Amino acid sequence: MGCGISKVDHLSPGQGGKQAWGSGSSVGGDCPTLYVWPGSAPCRAVIMTCAAAGIDVNLLEVNLPEGHHTTEAFSEINPHKTVPVLNDKGYILWESRAIMMYLVSKYARKKKLYSMNLKERALVDRFIHFDIGILSKAVNDYTTPILSPGSPRAPKADGNLRTALDLLENDLIGVQYATGSHVTIADISMVASLWMLEAVNFDIGKWRLISGWISRMKALPFYEE
Ligand SMILES: N[C@@H](CCC(=O)N[C@@H](CS)C(=O)NCC(=O)O)C(=O)O
User: Between 8 and which of 28, 54, 105, 160 could a Cys-Cys bridge form, CB atoms 3.0 to 4.6 Å apart?
Assistant: First the structure.
């Protein structure tokens, strides 16, 4: 498609409402557009997936601190008012993991990141569901009150995070990556979730296999610091 991962622009809501946000067709040519915010873990996961799979996308920044995701124009694209959002020639999709599955299935030349083989794919799905339901939730419950002082502290946030990390540590016994010897979108999704722990200086060193796996992920060319 010839776009690479290129940042199109910062569009603010005042720049033309629904059309400016790219509804109806992708912004910036034939490539799908991703609405993202750089400080967002799920956005990082989708961007890393595109880089890993060699998928060309245009990135469009939605400024969360300035509330651009809460505008009427953006709500018309994603009524949940969250990023990331994909616009693939008018086909709109939100939820980062659904976007990763869609993009790899549709555009990646090699499907190793999200195998077409039913049993291999189900193992990836298992980790993706673990991530959305347990791991990323535990990380968010732990980090949110620290990063946004004043927000309520979830009960058992500390214990739930340690339990989630214990589960992942156990899953990583004897493997290089979550489902075996090669990276999948499950690794990308989970490592992006855990990235938030760095922001609060949580010491993950006790979980030795997770620490090693994070180091391996960080050494990959598509990893986003
Ligand atoms: N489960 C969603 C989470 C999306 C999400 O909550 N994104 C945050 C940024 S990390 C957001 O848009 N927050 C804006 C808000 O909730 O007001 C996904 O994986 O895409």
Answer: 28
Residue 108 C-alpha to ligand 1 middle, in angstroms? 25
Cβ atoms of 194 and 204 closer than 8 Å: yes
Catalytic residue among 40, 96, 136, 193: 40
- Can you name the residues that pair with 59 across neighbouring β-strands? 7, 34
Q: Report whether 63 contacts 12 (CB < 8 A).
A: yes
Active-site residue flag, 40: yes
Residues 92-151 have pLDDT tens digits of: 999 999 999 999 999 999 899 999 999 999 999 999 999 999 999 999 999 999 999 999
| Ligand 1 center–CA 83 separation, angstroms | 5
Whole-number Å distance between alpha carbons of 67 and 134 = 28
